[in-house]
Amino acid sequence: MDELIALARDLAPEPRLTGGLLAAALERAGWSVLRAGTGTAFPRVWQKGTLRAGIQGDGPGVRLSVTLWWREVEEDDEDFVVLEALYEEAEAESRRVGERLDESLPGAHPEPAGGDPTDGLDYLHHRAWRLTNRTLLVGAIQHDNGLPVFVEAVIS
Fold it and tell me: Do 70 and 148 form a contact (C-beta atoms < 8 A)?
C-alpha cells in the first residue's frame, strides 16, 4: 500500500502522464524492470516485491496499473460456485484497500473522482479518488473470461 501511495504522490503534480514519465517514477521508487520489449521507448512491466505494475497505452491515454492482489482458479474448478466465491473475495479485498486509502491518501479528505473513471471497464467493485491532476482507482476486475481475478490500482 505504501508503494502505491508513494507513486500517487509522486505523480499527482504532473500535468500530463507519459510512458517515459511513469517509467522514471517507477525507477525512482526502486521498482525493477520485469519485462522490457525490444524496440520500445520504455519498459512496460515492472515489479517490486509481490507487486507488479504495467504501463498501459501511449499518448494522452497512458495509465499505470498496479496489481495488488490476484487469485487463480484451477481449470477443473471453473464452476459458478467457485468463481462466485472468488468474486466475493476480490470485492472484499477491493473494499479493504479502498478503506485503507481513504485513511492514507494525501489531504484531509480525498475527493471522489467524478465522471466514469473506469474507462468503460466492467469492475466487480471499484472506488476512485481525484488527486490534484490524477485519478486513482482501486477495483476488483476480471479482464476477460479467463482467469485470474485481480484487485488493481490504476493511476491515470
Answer: yes
Handedness of CA 111, 112, 114, 119 (dihedral sign): positive
Whether residue 148 is preceded by a cis peptide bond, meaning omega within 30 degrees of 0, is yes
What is the torsional sign of CA 113, 116, 121, 126? positive
Rounded CA gap, 25 and 12, in Å? 11
Q: Give the DSSP H or E segment for 147.
A: none
DSSP state of 21: H
Distance set, CA 123 to CA 8, 14, 92, 108, 139 (Å): 21, 27, 13, 27, 6
Summarised one tens digit per residue, pLDDT across range 75-95 is 665 677 888 888 999 999 999
Concatenate the DSSP letters of all residues of 57-119 into one string: -SGGG-EEEEEEEEE---GGG-SHHHHHHHHHHHHHHHHHHHHHHHHHSSSSSPEEPPS-TTT
**Cell digits of residue 97:** 484497500
Find all residues with CB under 8 Å of 111, minimum gap 6, and list them: 129, 130
Q: Are 156 and 11 in contact (CB under 8 A)?
A: no
pTM given for the model: 0.86
